[in-house]
Amino acid sequence: xxxxxxxxxxxxxxxxxxxxxxxxxxxxxxxxxxxxxxxxxxxxxxxxxxxxxxxxxxxxxxxxxxxxxxxxxxxxxxxxxxxxxxxxxxxxxxxxxxxxxxxxxxxxxxxxxxxxxxxxxxxxxxxxxxxxxxxxxxxxxxxxxxxxxxxxxxxxxxxxxxxxxxxxxxxxxxxxxxxxxxxxxxxxxxxxxxxxxxxxxxxxxxxxxxxxx
Length: 213
Hints:
Elements: E1 2-7, H1 11-21, E2 27-33, H2 36-46, E3 50-53, H3 62-72, E4 77-82, H4 89-95, E5 100-103, H5 108-119, E6 124-125, H6 127-139, H7 150-160, H8 165-172, H9 176-190, H10 195-204
Parallel strand pairs: 1-2, 1-3, 3-4, 4-5, 5-6
Helix pairs in contact: 2-3, 7-9, 7-10, 8-9
């Protein structure tokens, strides 16, 4: 039996995934959460085999959930299921420890195949996403986002979401001075001058939900 946990801020998406998986005798959905903050303590308690996680969520992003889960519970393997299928983030999520990456537009059969592959200890990347990663590598397209360190990327995501410096420091266990250092390094590397232009850049490069305000 493959024990599965769902992390997505849209109840309709979670319900849809559960409906797809319900008919499979080897699948059991053991829990679900609407945010990364709610998910992490439940994941540590339940220790599922596979976690299906959205990227764009309020609070902790799917990237942060991936990094934290990879460090604290490596036996639970994460598949990112996101509307974001191009740009630099699929590669960054896989580098952060995800075992799979799928587009939310993928067929139900592919989702089930990915879960089974990942549960066996293999990686699974949707064909369209794998093709884009390969083409970017062949064409030498290195996004400026890839110049950010993992910590700088975390700070950039939180700043772009409108989080205050003090909140970022508390969340990432960093001093105010260190957060400020990361902030200005991000601005310098991305060529932005303030939070408004950072948020605009983040939406253009798929770091934020394009429909978010």
